[in-house]
Each structure stands twice: as C-alpha cells, then as structure tokens.
Specification:
Radius of gyration: 18 Å
Shape: elongated
CATH superfamily of the largest domain: 2,3-Dihydroxybiphenyl 1,2-Dioxygenase, domain 1
Number of helices: 5
Strand content: 25-35%
Number of domains: 2
Number of strands: 8
Helix content: 25-40%
Distance between the termini: 50 Å
Largest sheet: 4 strands, mixed
CATH class of the largest domain: Alpha Beta
Order of helices and strands: EHEEEEHEEEHHH
Strand order of the largest sheet: 1-4-3-2
C-alpha cells in the first residue's frame, strides 16, 4: 500500500492504538492499517512500545504518534463529520461522549483522548451556505445547542 502524500499526524500520550481502534469501530470508511513499535527506547517509551499507528478516519489518512504527555490536543484542530439525519448525529455524538468524552457547544464534543469533533448535520451546513435570514435563524438556533437538534435547525431554516 503506497504511503499517502499528506497524512494528518495526531499526538497522543500513549493511547494512539486504542484511539485509532475506537475511530475505526465508530466511523464508516475507517480502519487501522498498521501498528509500528519503537525500535529502541525513546523519551516517553521503551523499545517495543507502540510508537505510531497508521489509520483512516472517514477516508482521511492519519498517523497516531505516542509522543508522551508534553503536547495536548486543542480545539484548534478538529474532525468535522457531516451527518445526514438525527439518528446518525446521535450515533456519533453518543459514541464519542459515551466513551469517556465530553460535550461542548454548537455540535462540538471531545473524545477521551482530547481530540475535538464537530458532529455537523448537513442541514446546518446547507443553511449556512444559503446565507441571509435562513442562515441567521439556523445559526441563532445552533448557538443554544450542544448536540445539534436537526428538527430545530430545520424549523429555524423555515422560519
């Protein structure tokens, strides 16, 4: 399998493999491709420890690096997952939050490894693209939500 030209590298303390396996079980078009072990000791691990994990999240190539506790995830990076309906929105939101994650605002949540996710129904994205009053109504409705309520966004779009 050829090495992708561009890969997102995500820094984990020590749980890159567990995170990658969770993502692979949760999102379609996701998988763990390879697990690489350290050939010798390094600052945050020992020879034979999992050093990197190659995986795909919803078709996006990623590399998980077990780099130790020095750097933390930040909301400055997030995966945005487009959903088609409330059932799909609930499924991803509940999987992330229910697996030790935490809710945030406006469709954002964080997994137990600190990685941020935007679980975004397509109807919200379409409302924002429509612009004008429709976008304003949908945006204003979203501002009071944690997990996005598709019916409420659709109602706001209609006015």
């Amino acid at each position: 399998m050829p090495i992708p030209k561009n890969t997102i590298c995500l820094w984990y303390d020590k749980d890159a493999e567990a995170a990658a396996r969770f993502y692979a079980e949760t999102f379609p078009d996701s998988k763990v491709s390879a697990v690489h072990r350290a050939p010798s000791d390094y600052p945050s691990g020992k020879k034979g420890d999992v050093l990197t994990v190659e995986f795909t999240v919803a078709g996006v190539a990623c590399l998980g690096l077990n780099g130790g506790p020095v750097f933390k995830q930040s909301e400055a990076f997030s995966f945005q997952i487009a959903t088609d309906d409330q059932e799909e929105t609930d499924r991803y939101w509940n999987a992330i939050v229910g697996n030790g994650g935490q809710e945030s605002a406006c469709g954002w949540c964080k997994d137990k490894w600190g990685l941020s996710w935007q679980i975004t129904p397509r109807t919200l994205t379409e409302a924002m693209a429509a612009g004008g009053e429709e976008a304003k109504r949908a945006f204003d409705a979203m501002m009071d939500m944690k997990k996005i309520d598709v019916a409420a966004i659709d109602a706001a779009r209609r006015g």
